[in-house]
Amino acid sequence: MDIKNLVKPNIRSLRAYHAEEIPCRVKLDANESPYGVKALKTVKTNRYPDPEAKALRRLLAKQFKTKPENILHGNGSDELIQCLITTFGGPVLFPTPTFSMYGIISQAQGEESAGIPLDEKFDLDTDNFLKAIKSRNPKLIFLSSPNNPTGNSFSEDRILKIIRQSKGLVIVDEAYQAFSDRKSFVPLLKKYQNLIILKTLSKIGLAGLRVGFMIAYKDVIDEMNKVRLPFNLNSLSQKLAVETLKKSALMRSEIKTIVSERKRLFNEMKKIYGIEPYPSDANFILFRTEKSDKIYKELLKRGILIRNMKGIIEGCLRVTVGTPNENRAFLKAIKSTV
Ligand SMILES: *Cc1c(COP(=O)(O)O)cnc(C)c1O
Question: Tens of pLDDT along 240-283?
Fold first, then answer.
């Protein structure tokens, strides 16, 4: 029996998201923070978690100057992307290249999706984007700003144009906003009812906990709560997320270190002949080189794992900002390969 024949056609042609697990000494491939939380506190493991994650949502509401009813928690923001697409369906629109899960989840759910290429500065191509909004009338538009994997933020006025022109929901994915000088779009929620802000704790030290959340109008969240699985966020993650967010001073100083390391890394990379780093507002740097495959392999031989963007942006590699020592190791190794 060939199981493939039983699978829905849209799933059959899909490829599983490949999260590489390559053993290495210096891990700079997945945009994780090099800094984590050490304390492991116990929780009541015999009881189900709080299905509404009340303590966490209350705390987040306070931090973002909104109400708990405007916050929805997810098992990572990935789950919220899935929940959005399940609730509202397609067409789904996003720029390319961008975070791959927008397209993968759309296809898995059998929803129509389209990617509109970014312009030569990796900014939104407003003309083509607005044309696509007119012709396709998307229910959902995903804008990751700062964008993964290019690292830049999109122009605020271009994002606003899209929000204003769209009759559907526009999700500004601020997974990397903590590393950027740009203002968050959260205050604009007051003005635009079709705006949703997506956030995650994954890139600021809690990737292992799987905690994502979104801020939106209550009507949007009420509909999504119909499809969200009741106990989607486990007790340990809820508790550790609350404890860590309460000690946010520590997180802030680590974020500052990462941002200053990013600037140093960028300046050092610019000096290396044969590689061209792109400016970044995130915790990673995308760079172009004619020898991308060779550099990727040579770095791995030296125990340093970065991300090869082959198939997404040709001739590009992406390095996550690590600790000062990890970054030095990366720089030393790359200088010896080019
Ligand atoms: C990493 C990432 C996410 C997913 O984060 P999780 O909360 O870990 O699921 C969402 N959006 C973008 C742009 C990302 O890079």
Answer: 999 999 988 778 899 999 999 999 999 999 999 999 999 999 99
CA–centroid distance, 76 to ligand 1, in Å, is 7
- 78 close to ligand 1 (CB < 6 Angstrom): yes
Ligand 1 atom closest to 203 (CA) = 1
Q: In what order do the strands lie in the sheet with 71-75?
A: 71-75, 211-215, 195-200, 169-173, 140-144, 92-96, 113-117
Do both 179 and 266 map to the same domain?
no
Ligand 1 centroid–CA 200 distance in Å is 7
* pLDDT classification of 214: cutoffs 50, 70, 90: very high
Nearest residue (CA) to ligand 1, atom 2: 175
The pTM is what?
0.92
Indicate the number of domains in the chain: 2
Residue 47 lies in a domain: no
Any atom of ligand 1 within 6 Å of the Cβ of 105 = no
**71 shares a domain with 199:** yes
Is there a single domain that holds both residue 265 and residue 226?
A: no
